């Protein structure tokens, strides 16, 4: 059997390692490609991993798997490869089942070119370069700053310097490139492969011994180098993404910097200012033209999304833009610090004001309680004042009634006085007539005595005497009618006097009730005063804390002082009421004493008049007249006493009216 060439072993080992670098994701591994790929199971798993697509269900691995099942699995894998646009010429499922190593290695190399080494085409004039030349150009471009020479993918890589240069170019911190010795190929390869695996996550497909001591296989070297290309491409994509994100971030900052009114839109002037920050050489006309292209809806304003889409397509120096942005924001730095200091000061003020507000709310509750209490007291005071006003109205009505009674009494007094005068004049006239009659009677008696001597003279005298008696009878009847009228007037006046006494008694009872209510109010006032004193002491103890909220509490102190003034005025009014009531009681007592003394004097006067009448000796003919005259004089004196009592009552009522009129 012909011995295998070194490059075949080299390639088979590299391809096996490449397949296993993907199969390990499903905990699978290939040892011998000719045998392990024959059933199609590993190949189907590999195609699914590389393409990221699910294949139709295949037959799982089994020790007794029939050749037909193996061919079916391989056909599924080959159909998936064809679906990816890979044209396989001369390779069938039976070739893989039979272990055709050449076709199997060709199939794997095709997969490596499609999924591993695939490179983006660079637009160039002339014929398309082969994959090997393009990959080689990429290596030269990336290692142009290193002291290396890249001629091919076999012997140029044998000493390990090119591998180390690729690793060092990707991450210079992994090892010291200048310390490598080109003559120590195996050590250089080991350092490069270990650093690539540990620092760049590139699988170790190649063996340092194989590369250093035999001619390297081109396809194996290209496969391993393609990992650096893919990682560089990923890094470039990531860098492009980072650059795009950086551009977007910086463009957003520029947009915010020039959008001074924070409207979310840029007009043409602000757009021009933003372009100047990205490129100071931008012309105004160019900016206006660009603005018209960006402003698609022709609204005269550009949104932030339109601005970002526009600047993302531009080439501009991010570092210089940072400098201009820093210069733009540097002018606002002092203002920002000043604003921060003002915000801190405002925060401290807010904290102090919050503490003062809490304290003020605490005292506000106390003041509200005082207000409620004062309002309750004011309600009680108003109720008391309403009661007093009602009593005053009643007293006013009584005083009006008393005034009317006084006017009527005055009229009655005037009528009584005129009647007394007329009666007195009539009595004097009658007395005079009586004296005349008596004198004429005595003369008549003497004449009768003289005339008795003769019958004719006596009869004439008797006739004259009868006429005189008739005349006296008529006069007595007139006097009797006057006496009856005087008695009627006296009874009417006495009834009015009794009614007035009842009204005065009722007024006195209500006055006593008012005094009791005033006493209760005084007790309430004293209680309220005690509470006010207690609260005042509490307020005095917290004076040092109230200094921070004096302005807000000034009105409350004013209300409290007004309440205290009201309480003081109420106490003064209560005191004055008590004094006036005491004065009125004293006046009533004096009037009562005067009334009792007057009644006693009238009784004694009547007794004296009665005794004088009884002592008089009149003739038999004059006794009826004297009996009628004595009661008339008694009635006159009675009316005189009643007038005096009524005057006292009127004086007391006037004093009450004067008190309640001057009270308010």
Based on secondary structure, the structural category is mainly alpha
How are the strands ordered across the major sheet?
A: 1-2
Overall pLDDT level: 76
What ranges have pLDDT less than 50 throughout 5 or more consecutive residues? Answer: 617-633
Number of helices: 19
Shape: rod-shaped
Overall number of strands: 2
- Strand portion: under 5%
Share of helix, binned = over 70%
Taking all Cα atoms into account, the compactness measure Rg is: 71 Å
Largest sheet, in brief, is: 2 strands, antiparallel
Order of SSEs: HHHHHHHHHHHEHHEHHHHHH
Distance between the termini: 144 Å
Polypeptide structure, described:
- Helices cover 78% and strands 1% of the residues.
- 17% of the residues are buried.
- It has a two-stranded antiparallel sheet.
- The chain is built from 19 helices and two strands.
- It is mainly alpha-helical and 664 residues long.
- Helix 11 packs across helix 12.
- The radius of gyration is 71 Å and the shape is rod-shaped.
- It starts with 5 loop residues before the first helix and ends with a helix.
- The longest helix is centred in the middle third of the chain and has 134 residues.
